[in-house]
């Protein structure tokens, strides 16, 4: 349980940092602001929904289900980020 929490928070930080850094590099300056605003709004929704999911899973005595689900989600996000910005066929190179 504790290990999954550590992985979850590490993945969250890595995903957050890479997302905001990538937006600034990928979008032109006049579009970067609105793109960052939209991304921040989605992140704020995540800050609302994640505790709700944890709460429901704790009520059902299965908090590990939420942790596994979020770990899978963050892994998929990490792989997509790598594929589109760091992989061999990256659309936009992001060092």
Structure in a nutshell:
The protein has 95 residues and is mainly α. It is built from three helices and no strands.
Provide keyphrases for this structure.
95 residues, mainly alpha, single chain, globular, 3 helices, 0% strand
Structural features, described:
With 95 residues, the chain is an all-alpha fold. It has one domain. Helices cover 83% and strands 0% of the residues. It is built from 3 helices and no strands. The longest helix has 31 residues, at 29-59. The chain is globular and about 45 Å long. The termini are far apart. The mean pLDDT is 87.
SS field, number of helical segments? 3
Counting structural domains, the number is 1
Using only C-alpha atoms, the radius of gyration works out to: 15 Å
Strand segment count? 0
Query: What pattern of helices and strands is seen along the backbone?
Result: HHH
As a percent range, the share of helical residues equals over 70%
- In the predicted model, the low-confidence regions spanning at least 5 consecutive residues are none
Helix-strand layout with pairing:
Elements: H1 2-26, H2 29-59, H3 63-85
């Amino acid at each position: 349980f504790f290990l999954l929490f550590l992985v979850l928070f590490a993945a969250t930080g890595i995903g957050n940092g890479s997302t905001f850094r990538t937006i600034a590099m990928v979008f032109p300056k006049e579009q970067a602001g609105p793109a960052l605003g939209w991304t921040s709004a989605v992140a704020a929704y995540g800050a609302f929904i994640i505790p709700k999911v944890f709460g429901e899973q704790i009520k059902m005595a299965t908090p590990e289900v939420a942790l596994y689900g979020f770990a899978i989600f963050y892994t998929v996000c990490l792989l997509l980020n790598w594929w589109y910005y760091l992989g061999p066929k990256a659309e936009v190179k992001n060092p």
